[in-house]
Write a structure and sequence with these properties.
By secondary structure, the chain is an alpha+beta fold. The protein is built from eleven helices and 19 strands. The chain is about 25% helix and about 30% strand. Strand 4 and strand 5 form a beta hairpin. Helix 5 packs parallel to helix 6 and helix 9 crosses helix 10. The termini are far apart. The N terminus is likely disordered.
Length: about 375
């Protein structure tokens, strides 16, 4: 039976986060977390822990996104057994007919090789702001994606990191890896599902689920003089207080086209692209609003804004607690899994030390005014 390599308790305001670095499972809890950690550390049998994880703990005490019960099941199943990972030698290079290599500002070159046209075309479009370089097979690092549709196999420098995943998941994982390479030699403690801009020397990070209006708000603010730091994926430094530039194109769904056509020169003339998002055909427009920025290195975060766009909604700003901030960051898809010595402490630090607000808006001008009031 596999054992945990590291189990840590991270304080978040008046709450605690229980995090296991081997299985990458997370639970947010109050006092019961202390008891759960004690059960693990004293060697209590996993079957007994399962019995003790009653509805009292699993529902009222733990974050509904990731139950500790799931965490225990993963440990018992042995899913992390490295012998189950397929070998790179079982795949043929001849299948990877789509290749590109790009250069990052830190000097690293990274090659991407794909079998799927759908995966490659979207990645190539998003990464257009970065210059192409030598052949993919001579780059410093290589990311390979074998397969089509819902059966993609992903390798990084010959090591399998994902098996039989859907194309949209493969694209996401590849972009996360590219982001990590772009900040080398640093290693981010988290990848936030967010957009980040700098206005008047202040850095704002917009967080929210898909469709919340993060990218649209960021693009509008850029049209008003802000600079985009990163869109959709934002690297968080290990200190939990800084973010890094990632100059990909932004993608916009149809609901924001009319608004952005009035704000961004050339946006109306862009031809939409149809992409597959988990079985649904979605029309999007790619637009480059990041390549003009001149950022290098990490930027200190001044404010986190959890955005929620609602048609015709009155603009409303609410202060939120560190616990709420942390839980929202996790629930909206921020990824605390990094390379090497992974820890939840970075994202916990961000939640505790960086002021955060919840912004509901229906009008971009009102949203801009509300954000500017946060600069004082």
């Amino acid at each position: 039976m596999p054992e945990t390599e590291k189990l840590e308790l991270v304080p978040v305001g008046q709450s605690w986060c229980l995090y296991d670095a081997k299985s990458n499972f997370l639970a947010l809890a109050n006092e019961p977390t202390r008891q759960i950690a004690e059960w693990f550390n004293c060697g209590l049998p996993r079957t007994e822990i399962n019995r003790l994880l009653t509805a009292k703990y699993a529902i009222s005490a733990l974050d509904s996104k990731r139950f500790v019960g799931d965490f225990v099941s993963a440990l018992e199943s042995g899913d992390n057994d490295e012998t189950a990972i397929p070998l790179r030698s079982g795949f043929s290079d001849s299948d990877l007919h789509l290749r590109r290599a790009i250069a990052f500002d830190n000097g690293l070159t990274v090659g991407i090789a794909c079998e799927s046209d759908a995966v490659f075309s979207t990645l190539a479009e998003l990464l257009t702001p970065y210059p192409k370089c030598a052949e993919a097979n001579t780059a410093d690092h290589c990311i390979e994606c074998f397969g089509e549709g819902g059966a993609c196999f992903l390798f990084v420098d010959g090591v399998c990191i994902a098996t039989e995943i859907a194309g949209p998941v493969a694209k996401r994982l590849i972009l996360e890896r590219m982001l990590k390479f772009s900040v080398w030699p640093d290693s981010p403690s988290a990848i936030l599902h967010a957009s980040a801009v700098e206005m008047a020397g202040k850095t704002f990070v917009f967080v929210g689920p898909c469709g919340a209006g993060k990218s649209t708000l960021a693009a509008y603010l850029v049209s008003q003089g802000a600079q985009l730091i990163a869109d959709d994926l934002v690297a968080l430094h290990s200190d939990g207080l800084r973010v890094a530039p990632f100059k990909t194109k932004s993608s916009f769904k149809q609901g924001s086209w009319e608004i952005l056509s009035q704000q961004l020169d050339g946006f109306d003339a862009i031809t939409p692209t149809t992409v597959n998002r988990f079985g649904q055909k979605v029309a999007i427009k790619f637009f480059d609003i990041a390549s003009s920025n001149t950022f290098h290195g990490w930027k200190s975060v001044d404010r986190i804004v959890h955005v929620n766009w609602q048609l015709d909604a009155a603009c409303q700003v609410d202060e939120i607690t560190p616990e709420d901030n942390f839980e929202r960051l996790i629930r909206t898809g921020s990824n605390i899994r990094g390379d090497g010595a992974t820890s939840a402490k970075g994202i916990a630090t961000l939640a505790c030390q960086c002021p955060a607000i919840a912004l509901t808006y229906g009008d971009l001008t009102d949203a801009k005014t509300a954000i500017f009031t946060q600069m004082d």
